[in-house]
């Protein structure tokens, strides 16, 4: 462990990992480039550590030094104690949860690697809202999806807001990025998955007719709120499927649709 | 129809329905007391009208007078044309959608009335977040729930934020409020519904074991994000049920949980 260090200069270079956290564009560029992400709050910091992400440093208000004692003792990473005003000055916002950690990223596995042991996989196209990515990961983990694949333009699951909304579930489900889109879907099909594209388009099959009672490998392809899947992605899938709609409503929000689809493909039991 | 009136005094008493829209506490008291609610944006205003809510007035920026011409012509309600700065001054925010309508509330039906023709019903306890209420109504409508019942402390489905998040679905699903809680659940059971309480508590039965392939009447009881259902509500239900969780995740968010549960009870087809 490292003895906690009290820092009272907001320009101290040791706080560099935590500067400008509210500047989404800046952090979106900086974090992957510098190989870090920010975990916020005791629970999320603990989960990130348990998932094997190496800690670079922690930024704590003094009252969190006690509750985080075991985390501090288990890591060689430096721990900076700051007062709440200084934390706000550095990060740009009032850090309600009183504890931030800068964690090192791990290299993402290759798609084939996350697919190898999986039976139920979610594939997202162009979901570039951090809240939606986080919510979908939370549902994917909770409902027993085995892995997540992302198109090149999906948002970063390790961005602070995604991690927070996911309640740390981004650490629980293996994920990878497909670099070639939508051709990368061929990798998924070659691994033995039937790729089901979730879309309200005409000709799509009701989800409950195809999802339940399956023992083979299924990949669910989901598009972004609003636009939905591109025609190219739907064409690269095996079958279009839809969640039947009632009362003249045209769609569910993407988080609700994802949860329903995950439930449908994970919970079907083989007929007795 | 009434000829649109240009208003340029923010203190004009005819704009009273639209004052202080960002003051949640004020509006939460005023709107039910004055028998009104605010519909925002062309689509939501049209849906409110189609659902039979009487229009009290509209507040439009000039460019919306054209697209809303048919709505204006179909109603005797006064239409006030204002510039965007005045709209912001009156309401407290920048009205992106350029059109607001003050609609008259209708008396809520009695619980027995909304239950009479229904087969699948959602019952919410203490869901007092306007965003969650809206999201749950959207899913309830989209997934074919026939009615919604609210405990006395649930938030107002006709609050501006709820209406917006629901995409107008609060107008599509009949709902009522139970005044006596949780004793009012007896009304639901007496109407022939089995009341299933959604809870991760020990002893609960996996949802997929009880929800699918049912032809009888089912009511799903849902609690708020965080606290979940009270012990009293669970005790007043017939059976506790749960959505099975994986990867060590302890819960779904309430919107995702509701969507999954609605899908589970509405989509099960009788075995062939």
Automatic annotation (TrEMBL), chains A, B:
Coiled coil feature spans: none
Keyword Methyltransferase tagged: yes
Pfam families membership: SpoU_methylase (PF00588)
GO biological process per UniProt: methylation
Keyword list, A-Z: Methyltransferase, Transferase
UniProt GO MF annotations: methyltransferase activity
Positions of the tRNA/rRNA methyltransferase SpoU type domain: 121-263
Domain of life: Bacteria
Protein name from the UniProt record: RNA methyltransferase
């Amino acid at each position: 462990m490292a003895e906690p260090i009290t820092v009272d200069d907001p320009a101290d270079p040791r706080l560099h990992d935590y500067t400008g956290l509210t500047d989404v564009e800046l952090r979106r560029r900086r974090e992957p480039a510098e190989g870090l992400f920010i975990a916020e709050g005791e629970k999320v910091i603990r989960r990130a550590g348990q998932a094997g992400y190496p800690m670079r440093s922690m930024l704590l208000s003094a009252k969190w030094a006690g509750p985080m004692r075991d985390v501090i003792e288990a890591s060689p990473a430096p721990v900076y104690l700051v007062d709440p005003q200084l934390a706000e000055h550095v990060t740009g916002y009032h850090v309600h949860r009183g504890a931030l950690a800068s964690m090192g990223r791990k290299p993402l596995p290759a798609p084939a690697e996350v697919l190898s042991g999986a039976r139920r996989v979610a594939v997202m196209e162009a979901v570039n809202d951090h809240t939606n990515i986080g919510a979908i990961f939370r549902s994917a983990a909770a409902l027993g999806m085995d892995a997540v694949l992302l198109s090149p333009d999906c948002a970063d699951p390790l961005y602070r807001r995604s991690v927070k909304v996911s309640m740390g579930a981004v650490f629980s489900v293996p994920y990878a990025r497909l670099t070639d889109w939508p051709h990368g879907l061929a990798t998924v099909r070659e691994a033995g998955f039937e790729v089901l594209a979730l879309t309200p388009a005409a000709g799509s099959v009701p989800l409950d007719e195809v999802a339940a009672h399956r023992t083979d490998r299924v990949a669910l392809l989901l598009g972004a709120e609003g636009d939905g899947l591109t025609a190219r992605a739907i064409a690269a899938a095996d079958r279009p499927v839809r969640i039947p709609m009632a009362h003249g409503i045209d769609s569910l929000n993407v988080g609700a649709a994802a949860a329903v689809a995950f439930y449908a493909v994970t919970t079907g039991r083989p007929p007795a």
